[in-house]
Amino acid sequence: MYWKNLTYFGDSMLLLPTALLLAIFLFWKSQRWQTAFGWLLSFGIAGGLVSISKVMFLGFFLGSQSLNFTGFSGHTTLSSVLWPVVMWMISAGRQPWLRRTLITFGYLLPLAVGYSRLQLHAHSPSEVISGATLGALLSTGYLLIQRHTRLDKVSLPQLVCFAALPAVIIFTGQPATTQQFLATLSARLAGIEKPYTRAQLLQAGHAN
Questions:
Q1: Engineered SS bond to 114: which of 12, 70, 128, 191, CB 3.0-4.6 Å?
Q2: Mind giving me the DSSP string for 75-99?
């Protein structure tokens, strides 16, 4: 149960609405549409690359048997993009040591999410490591681009408002059906009856 609770911090059901809410706050606190747009672009690129990698395997059997790779871990990738930027936003205007601590936590939480995916046997190490790398590159790239952007401090009442939506979603604990959607979409795009599975990939490798 612990791993399932931890892995939810990378679930699309939580991350997608939080990413949109973050864009609103970034625009509000920076007064620059570029700051919000850049964030949505970074998050969108991450989601797009994860989806493409999964469709390529599920529909067209493009993966790596030697690496046991069937696509980027979506939980790991998207959480690695989201949480560092969330912590950057909510730590604006606070003491440097606190800001560094919160942003560091923003990078560590996705690693814990990735580890939970391994414990739940949802992904292979290659899928988690590549997802964490991809997500960290995108979030770090965004933060570097925005390093001169001034954000107004998020007050405690504002922070409570920001955290309310994610808290409600976490409380309900309803997981997203993204994987099922991608599996159905992949099969239709490829014109096959059923999407390919990890077991088929590994069996094909043994057969060769």
A1: 128
A2: HHHHHHHHHHHHHHHHTTTS-HHHH
Q: Facing residues of 69 across strands?
A: 64
Strand partners, 64: 69
196 within 8 A of 61, measured Cβ to Cβ: yes
Structure tokens at 14: 């939580």
Residues 192, 75: Cα–Cα separation, whole Å: 27
- C-alpha distances (whole Å) from 207 to each of 52, 59, 201 are 27, 20, 10
Dist CA 205 CA 208 (whole Å): 5
- What mean pLDDT do residues 16-37 have? 97
Over residues 191-202, mean pLDDT: 92
Take residue 13 and report the two structure tokens written for it: 């059901």
Pull the structure tokens for residue 134.
Answer: 């991809």
Q: Write the single-letter amino acid at 54.
A: K
Predicted TM-score (pTM) above 0.90: yes
